[in-house]
Amino acid sequence: MTSFRLPNRGRVDHARPISFTFDGKAYTGLAGDTLASALLANGVHLMGRSFKYHRPRGVVSAGSDEPNALMGTRRGPGRFEPNTRATVQELREGLEATSQNRWPSLAFDIGAINDRFGSLFSAGFYYKTFMWPRAFWDRVYEPVIRQAAGLGVSPTEPDADRYASRFAHTDVLVVGAGPAGLAAALAAGRSGAEVMLVDEASEPGGSLLSEPGVLIDGKGAWDWLAAALAELDRLPNVTVMPRTTAIGYYHQNLIGLAQRLTDHLAEPPEGAPRERLWRVRAREVVLAQGALEKPLVFDGNDRPGVMLAGAAQTYLSRYGVKVGDRPVVVTSHDSAWHAAFDLAEASAKPAAIVDIRPAVDAALSERAGSLGIETLLGWSPTGTSGRLRVKSLRINQLRDGRVGTARTIACDAVLMCGGWTPGLHLFSHTKGSLAWDDELKAFLPGRKSEAVHIAGAGRGLWGIASALADGAAAGARAARETGRDVQEPAHAVTADRTGTGVTAKDLPTDRNPASAKAFVDYQNDVTAKDIRLAVREGMRSIEHVKRYTTNGMATDQGKMSNVNGLMIAADALGKAPPQVGLTTFRPPYSPTTFGTFAGYHQGATFDVTRRTPIDPWAEANGAVFEPVALWRRAWYFPKLGEDMHAAVARECRATRASVGVFDASTLGKIEVVGPDAVTFMERMYTNPWAKLGVGRCRYGLLLGEDGFIRDDGVIGRLAETRFHVTTTTGGAARVLNMMEDYLQTDWPDLKVWLTSTTEQWAVVALQGPNARKLLEPFVEGLDISDAAFPHMSVAECTVAGFPARLFRISFTGELGFEVNVPARHGLALWERLWEEGRKYDICPYGTETMHVLRAEKGYIIVGQDTDGTVTPDDAGLSWAIGKKKPDFVGKRSLARPDMVAKGRKQLVGLLTDDPKAVLQEGAQIVADPNQPKPMTALGHVTSSYWSEALSRSIAMAVVADGRERDGQIVHIPMPDRTLSARVTKSTVFYDPENTRLSA
Amino acid sequence: MLLIHCPYCEQDLPELEFAYAGEAHIARPEDPSRLSDEEWRDYLFIRSNARGHHFERWRHINGCARFFNAVRETVSDRFLLTYKAGEPRPDISSLTGGTE
Ligand SMILES: [Zn+2]
Fold first, then answer.
1. Chain A: which residues have CB within 8 Å of chain B?
2. What is the largest CA-CA distance in chain B?
């Protein structure tokens, strides 16, 4: 194979070959290559297929704006990435790359038939082609879309890599390490300001890397670059970060950076993170992002071998690669002329320089003449030929706005330049306004909304000298804003290549424009014709044109296509470009892996896991856990060979027969203390508290101001001025927040202090007829007989030698106690009770048994049996409302018309006609099982279990006018059958007389 | 991520430390039972949803835990002022100085 590598050129290491594969074929590149430059060095231009038409595509750019050369890259299991931009991916030993959007092969692709039926895929095709006939949708359109949709293939294995994240603060953040950014960093850095200089490329330098001929401060560009980087490296207050993309610019100068750490390494260090997300808060930001080169829009401008002239110059200067032996240049800007001169001097003399402008600077023409390059001024490209690689360029002379005769130039590459557009993405993230510059025919940064300075080509300045001067000024200004005393450095530049150009719309042609494939957006296959069609079909806003044609909606976010699309749309609309405007740029600047955003939040560190003090015992004793809010709770304790059903049935039996022990430590606990504590409780909860005696407990119900149930829990009065409030496990933080809200803002006059004590107390619940017998010997300082310590009592005492708050309460319907001890003693208390409990066949039970036992008693669980639309009356809890209280949170809402209207869903019991059938929680309930669909749902099942005590299934449900339906049969349609059940207005299924509570 | 000035801590701190808490200066009525259904509905649900200067509450929940008030420009998402709970509603024109 012919090598297109030039010896002794570029910044690659010619002594260090690197092996890699593309579509299974082995190639060799050099250290310092990108995947794209290495393929080009091997003469490979065909790097992918387009998304919609599957047209053969080659690399267009040399940077992160690349729309075509997207590949899958792999590095072992779990390390596959689709849509890697070959122009960004650095070559590493053993890199495996595969092309995308093709089948069976890149050179022969079945999907390319779409290209022949292009009319089906014109603007708005999503909305038109697949509309009719209806029957086609399931059988034809959807399968076709699914097969064809998406760029690349999603990885199927979990990501094996780690990702990191970090926060940073700095005085000055400089984005872009080209000449403007480097000058800014030098100016700010020398003043002593903290500076971060970031660049998305593998090495800093920007355009200097492609312009080695420029002389700065008497040095060659690359020598100056090395000296500048060495100086920045010596400054302790400056950090230079290559491979770091500023992906988003957020409020108050917060910049998101995605730093690539290992993708360029052949053998990454074990455990090293692949990427790191930085959140940098900068006092001042300097945006030195440079400008993006635009393609020219003409028929066949997407053939492999057609690329940006500036990219060809970069491949030549930076990588020592000529993109062809006989390129032809087509341009509307001076910059491509310089690219042509560089190529001519590197044995790749362009066949011609074609410029759509009728005249250019005489110096350019003279230089071309001296190099023996034919120049064609006032000619326009109108077509290309070649299937998998461009073979010729067709051009026509333009005269007085008319397209003249055609001529064909044989070539193996077409290097185009449609001018340059400032990189506005990050500035646009800040909602800074853009201003149209009619001379440059470009949008420039306008009104700023952040402490930001834009420097160099990013605000339309052209050439190395002006970039350096502007960057130095911006860096100095930024440092001054942070209070530094700054000398603004001046840089002397010779051999600079300044230039001008014009901005064109789709270029004129002598052929039928309707059959032209003149691409604007390569990645989404949008042509000039599509944009004009969108306007003809009534799209007026550029945002509508964008969505209708999908122009600029691909992963490159229109870096190349935005302004060309705007120029064409403006022409079609007959408006000036600024009246049409640009679409909104949004973060991230370039595609960013999900891993980078996830950072450390994966696997065990995905979220916090709260564990109780008794958790180690549960784990050692074989508990199966379930997550409840952030807690992990013991769900059930299976014995050998038991499934969940068998374990739960056994735990239920054992608890009702003798004694069960349960870890209730996760209950939310709030200490409400102060002279006005009782007043506060009266206002917050529905229940009356004033007359609750010290040492007594009460079930408390908390509403929102809208009258709906928010939380509940048993509340004990420990002293006149002290309440021990318990909340649901998941509701603790919400309830405390709500209490604080009222206390701080509505009732700041109340002398009350609130303290979260959830994790201060470990709570061991003993439930069952033998609970007292087991507990009694451990208790000191308290008589816990039924007479002295009846149901709903609370007292401080000592249990097993530990200071305790002892509650006599029950969430099972059995005689029950809940022992609160300081968390550090929780495990010891549990183990003591466990040892002693063996006498009574004590059984540890988990949350599932807890749920069954409470459902047998009809006790609700807020959030399961209620859903935020349930009033106390709906839930059958009217008894918990202090009727004589003048006010409490939510009281007024309970009198609103809708809250007392008929038809509300009320909590009732359901007993299935088939006692063995356990209803599905969430199942819908209907009155008439034969009603045609859509059926009228009366409500749904909220809780449903097998009751071991009753040897049948039980359920609770919310049903419209449920209590009036007492005894009626309702139906629960399921996918395989329809179940029937009898409504019971009481939800208490077991021991309705509560005889067991006071056993 | 916004930087928010906590008027109690007297520091500019990242939004991660704060929780939004709805519109400000909506006092709970002294005696809700005297309100008509419509008045109570307005208290519960009707909010200004301003495009422009919005008086709102925040809580420094992962800090001093205090609720406080703020004036935020909802278009630019920029805070004009934060102030302690219970302080009177500030005069907008004095904050903007008549310029935007
Ligand atoms: Zn604070």
1. 250-252, 254, 279, 281, 431, 449, 705-706, 737, 740-742, 744-746, 748, 886-887, 891-893, 896-897
2. 44
d(CA A624, CA A635): 5
Per-residue confidence (pLDDT) for residue A440, from 0 to 100:
86
Name the residue facing A705 among B44, B57, B85 (closest C-beta): B44
Structure tokens at A341: 């001169």
Expressed as residue numbers, the domain containing A669 is 662-853
The percent of chain A in helix, strand and coil, each rounded to the nearest 5, is 25, 30, 45
Count CB atoms within 10 A of the CB of residue A180. Answer: 35
Of B31, B37, B85, the CB nearest to A887: B31
- Determine, for residues A741 and B66 on separate chains, whether the beta-carbon distance falls below 8 Å: no
Task: Name the residue of chain A whose CA is nearest to B86's CA.
Answer: A745
CATH code for the domain of A989: 2.40.30.110
Considering the domain architecture, whether residues A916 and A849 belong to the same structural domain is answered as: no
Question: B76, A745: Cβ pair inside 8 Å?
Answer: no
pLDDT of residue A51: 81
B99: pLDDT strictly greater than 50: no
Contact yes or no for B2 and A252 at CB 8 A:
yes
Residue in B35, B57, B86 closest to A748 by CB:
B86
With respect to residue A637, please indicate whether it lies within any of the assigned structural domains. Answer: no
Distance, CA A220 to ligand 1 centroid (Å)?
55
Residue A252 Cα to ligand 1 middle (Å): 19
Residue A792 covered by a domain? yes
Residues A106 and A129 in one domain: no
- Number of domains, chain A: 5
Find the CATH number of the domain harbouring A107. 3.10.20.440
Domain map (residue ranges) of chain B: 20-26+40-100
* Tens digits of residue pLDDT in B41-88: 999 999 999 999 999 999 999 999 999 999 999 998 999 999 999 999
Position A190 in a domain: yes
Structural domain ending residue among the three candidates A838, A853, A868: A853
Residue A832 backbone zone (phi > 0: left; psi -120 to 50: alpha; other: beta): alpha
Measuring CA to CA, which residue among A561, A477, A511, A598 is closest to residue A163?
A: A598
Residues A170 and A143 in one domain: no
- Look up residue A55 and give its amino acid: R
* Measured distance CA(A963)–CA(A966) in Å, rounded: 5
Strands A420-422 and A291-293: antiparallel
pLDDT of residue A498: 87
DSSP per residue over A227-239, as a string? Answer: HHHHHHHH-TTEE
**Residues A675, A768: one domain?**
yes
Nearest to A897 among B3, B33, B37 (CB): B37
Residues 6 or more apart in contact with residue A935 via CB below 8 angstroms:
A924, A926, A928, A973
CB-based neighbours (< 5 A) of ligand 1, an ion: B 6, 8-9, 60, 63-64
Residue A263 counted as domain residue: yes
Q: Mind telling me how many Å the CA of B44 is from chain A's nearest CA?
A: 7
**Residue A697 shares a structural domain with residue A816:** yes
CATH superfamily of B20-26+40-100: Folate-binding superfamily (3.30.2270.10)
Do A129 and A103 fall into the same domain?
Answer: no
Give me the CATH number covering residue A776: 3.30.1360.120
Separation of B66 CA from ligand 1 center, angstroms? 6
Tell me which of B94 and A797 has the higher pLDDT.
Answer: A797
Query: Is the CB of residue A175 less than 8 Å from the CB of residue A255?
Result: yes
Q: Do B40 and A892 touch (CB under 8 A)?
A: yes
Residues in chain B with CB shorter than 8 Å from the CB of A745 are 57, 67, 85-86
Residue in B11, B12, B28, B41 to test binding to A, most A beta-carbons within 10 Å: B28
Low-confidence ranges of chain A (pLDDT < 70): 1-2, 103-104, 110, 113-114, 116-150, 999
Average pLDDT, chain B: 93
pLDDT number for residue B100: 41
